[in-house]
Design goal:
heterodimer; A: about 575 residues; alpha+beta; six-stranded mixed sheet; 25 strands; globular; B: about 500 residues; six-stranded antiparallel sheet; 21 strands; about 20% helix
Chain lengths: ~575, ~500
Amino acid sequence: MKGMGKYSMRNISRREFVGTTTSAAAVAAMASTLPAKLAKAYSFEASPYAILTGSGTAADLADPERMKKLVLHAVEAARTAGARYAEARVTRTVSQVFIKDGQQFGKDQEDLTIGVRVLVDGAWGFAASPYWDLDEAVILAKDAVNQAKINASVFPEEIDLGNYPVAQGTWSTPIRIDPFKVSIEEKMDFFASFDGLLPRHVRGRLYELGFGQSVSFFRQERTVANSEGSLFSQTLYNCGADPRLAVKADIPNETRKEQQIVYGKGMSMAPAGWELFLDANLREQIPEMIEEAESNLFRFIPQKPVEVGRYDMVIAAPVMASLISVTLSNATQLDRAMGFEANAGGTSYLGPDPMKYLGSALGSSLLTVHGDRSFDKGLATVKWDDEGVMPEPFPIIDKGKLVDYQTTREQAPWISEWYSSNGREAKSHGCSCAPYADNFPLQHAPNLIMHPGDDESSFSSMIDNTENGIALFGGRTGTDFQSLAGSISDTTMREIVNGKLGAYLVGGEVLFTSRELWKNLIGVGGSKDRVLTPRFSSKGQPAQGAVYSIEAYSGMVKEVTVVDQGRKG
Amino acid sequence: MINSSKPASRFLSEAECAEIIRKAVDIAVAGGDTALMIEGSWSGNLRYARNRISTTGDIRSNDVVGMRDIRGAIAYVHSNQIDDTELEASIRRAERILRLFPETGDRRFREHFVTIDQAGWREVVNSDRHGSGDTDSLEPPALLMQTIEPYAKPKIFFDSTYNVNAEERVAKIKPLLESARKANLMAAGYIEVSAHGRAVMDTWGRALYYPYTNSQFSVTVRDPEGTGSGWAGVDFNDWNRIDLVRLSEIAKDKCLRSRNPVAVEPGRYTAILEPQAVSDIFSPLVGSLDRISAESGRGAFSLPDGNTKLGLKVLDERITVSADPMDPDLGFPPFSRFGHVYNPVNWIEHGVLKELSYYRNYGIQILGSNSGLPNSGSYRLSGGDTNVEEMIASTRRGLLVTRFHGIYRIDPDSLLLGGYTRDGLWLVENGKISKAVKNFRITESPLFIFNNLESLGEPVRVFRPGYPTVVPPAKVRDFSFTSLSDAV
């Protein structure tokens, strides 16, 4: 036992290795030069990628036939055991996380799960495990049916799942390069490769490029079958990083900001493969990022404490995305509104009776938001939701009016009265999601798309047109358990004086209520300001989380309350 | 022969975990050490809302962390699979990943594989897994950082929890739903029972295994119009200690009494915090009891120049914060997922900061002790001789708080927290509850309010699944309620 160091790839030029050993034959040639034990280590399952990715079988997709067989077997067993409706799901999830700005390996995970959900006499049953075998599929199906039968003994309700076309086929997030087929070394090299582009010998300044807290890669293969004949497989990908350039002044000077951070574009978490990082062209962004950071670094921008009061506020698009998330994402989930999450995350200011709010004004006519799981750039995007429904875009807020909620098949009929009064059928919006097969499928947020204002308008034009006010660049947004009252803390804001940006305002916190915020919306930026931001939401008991995207634009809101963050009552 | 591809019962037994590590060790190549940290679990749950059962589940899961260490280059991999093929994939992944890390030269290798029983250490297997013949190059370990420490043996596995099946869950819920329906109120609640086997086994000599159970119940009762909301909940290792009917009645009563709240001015009030509210606002303080952070100048317990507040008075002298896995009301596993042994500790004694948490390598290297002092997150907060009723009776003007929601940190150095009150807030005037009031957003630090302490009541177990917590109700002065929220 001499350790692996001697034979490790560290002793070979990594670029050379990656560049020349992309075929199985080359790997075999490489392996043949290694001692027998190490060769064994390097040739798992004869995958040409095992040596390159080191993720065991992670580079390879699971056997789709095996996945189909498992779910079909489970559905059949559930029907035999007495289920009126049955649905089985398997997921195989692989993920990699890199830390320290992408230059150190952080975490590697692979999980397989199988879950069966059944409906018997107006009650649900659900069972799940990590064991992918046919006997297990039967055990889970019987367990789920048994639970449902017992649950049906207490106040069962008519559950109407409606009629939907049978879902069949396969779909994958459109990607070009599976990130699990790119070696760990190549990824780490990629993130390290930008260092050479930064100036090194500028006196009094220090340049650093980082990729945020973590760089992550995710792939999930999922196959679902149900007793209506649906059988579909989907492979979902997402990955992302948060590139940022920091320029620091070495000379301490209290009147200047000593550090400027500029963010890179095109790498934030998205439904994409390794090409996300290549296509972002960060290399070409860097000179601009350096220029922007430097120009602010040596510009005198005074700081002063914020004065408590009400201000007209121009809000940057990323903050608008956060505001949509905290005021509308949870609030327009029909189950939350009606009280199904009352004992967990909370309810909604748009409940408990949704009929009271549908059709009524929620905000200014400038606000239009729709939900869409078919949107090609969204993290929540699928071809079929977990109940086999093909999602379509649907308006939630139309010119300030609440016109719909996020729904699943079970939920859509709960507001059938609204739909029929509008001459529509009560149909699911395809928001059913079991993030992993061992999660009971719940309604999760679709991608939320805000509509832009006219193209003449932008963050900077709104500042130009503001006599006195505040420009809000960033902050941490949160609301209470009904998405009703909220705050933006740790803000970055500057005063606006006669249409020009002035001093940084320190220590300000924004307080709002959702209705007032949207009622006072007086401007929305055009497409130039568009941002697409990743979001994560959690609900349920046991808790489960899902990802989605928000597309948003800058906005202008009048009479926003600003208080001193450090104050106490 | 144990079939390790699936456990015989609902979660992995000690023998099954040992078999898995044995296989992992066989699979490992190129020497070094191998460790597996396994949490095998089963849970059964039942959820209800709007007075009917909404979701349910019987879920088995594994969380397997595999580790390979070759000359100090260490890699971890995560999986939920235990069959031979997947186990091999995991070990190979770890061996692949560790090539990314530098060898630090640590030689903590031990040539035997031992387990521990009631009597002490016992060697069970002589391992000759390497067969490479060059063991003479192995130096004795300089620091036995990872060898076995004795650990407590609390009774935290209860058949009464393990045996709760779908029938029993439904039978318990039925009268609660009937009662809510009769009262024309909306009940939403959650039952979860679970059983776990926690194993940490490795070629350094650890063969730790501990089974335990958890159970929890929480319930929210609202009126159909959404103008009042009440909550109650608790968790215990032993399902028999949870009184669902009593908790449901508390939630119902709070719902009825909290209806149609009126707004009172934000500001500083004397606050009577029910035990759940104390836990919600005090737990972040317990979570920040970290020695290395404090010595690095971070957090509420640091002083300039690498000094800490150890030995200084940080809270009112009536406050003692302790954690002991043998505490019959706490009862948490005696070691962490990664094998860090939880020793009994008084973090804060009569208001004086006595200990800050650290791992065993810090203990050995810096303090010259043989053990670590990791923080399980569970704790007991000492009590006093009064109760909520007396606290109310002795208050001229104040607020009675059921619990807080969404607590987040504003400033780690002062432990300033933000959040909201939820599920029952009342104004107390002249010794009596006078009216239900609208919720507040709060901005407050436990370091401030537990130095402004008026009185404490009897400590009780609260709802904090995964982190057993025993705290009393407390009456504090000048609690900062910063702005109104209309949320119910």
